[in-house]
UniProtKB/TrEMBL annotation:
The lineage of its organism: Bacteria, Pseudomonadati, Pseudomonadota, Gammaproteobacteria, Lysobacterales. It is found in: Cytoplasm. Its EC number is 2.7.4.6. The active site is at H117 (pros-phosphohistidine intermediate). Belongs to the NDK family. It catalyses: a 2'-deoxyribonucleoside 5'-diphosphate + ATP = a 2'-deoxyribonucleoside 5'-triphosphate + ADP; a ribonucleoside 5'-diphosphate + ATP = a ribonucleoside 5'-triphosphate + ADP. GO terms for biological process: CTP biosynthetic process; GTP biosynthetic process; UTP biosynthetic process. It comes from Luteibacter rhizovicinus DSM 16549. One of its GO terms (molecular function) is metal ion binding. Major role in the synthesis of nucleoside triphosphates other than ATP. The ATP gamma phosphate is transferred to the NDP beta phosphate via a ping-pong mechanism, using a phosphorylated active-site intermediate. One of its GO terms (cellular component) is cytoplasm. This is Nucleoside diphosphate kinase. SMART domains: NDK (SM00562).
Amino acid sequence: MALERTLSIIKPDAVKKNVIGEILSRFEKAGLKIVAAKMKQLTKEEAEGFYAVHKERGFFNDLVAFMISGPVMIQALEGEGAVLKNRDLMGATNPKEAAPGTIRADFADSIDANAVHGSDSLENAANEIKYFFNDSDVVSH
Ligand code: UDP
C-alpha cells in the first residue's frame, strides 16, 4: 500500500456533540497521522463549492445549510492507504447502514447529519486538501 493523504471533515453535528477528540483518536489509533487541521465556520459559498459535484441533487440545498449550521473541524490525514482506511473508519453514508463500531454508526443520527466527510478517491483527496489548505499548511511528521 502507498502512503496517501485524504481530507476529513468533522461535520457540525459531531462538533456540537463535543466528540472531536474521540473521532480524531480513532484516526490516530488506526495509524493515520493528522498532518493539517483547522476549525472553521464555512461560508455558504465555501460549502457550495466543496459539494459542487452534488449541485443537481435534491439534497444539495439542505446539505449546504447543514454544513454551515455550525463550525466544522477539517483535517488532512496521512498514512498507508489513507483514503480507504478513512472510509472504512467512517462507515456507510447512511448511519443506519454503517457497520457497528464505525464513526457514523456511533456518532451520526441520520443520512444528512452523518458526523464526518472523507474523500472517496485519491484524486478527490488531493483536490479537497487543496480546497482547504495551502501546501505550507500540510506537514509531515
Ligand atoms: N447526503 C444526503 N442525502 C442523501 C445522500 C447524501 O444528505 O440522500 C449528504 C450526506 O451528508 C453525505 C453527503 O451528502 O455525506 C455527500 O454524499 P456522498 O454520496 O458523497 O456520501 P459520503 O461520501 O459522504 O459518504
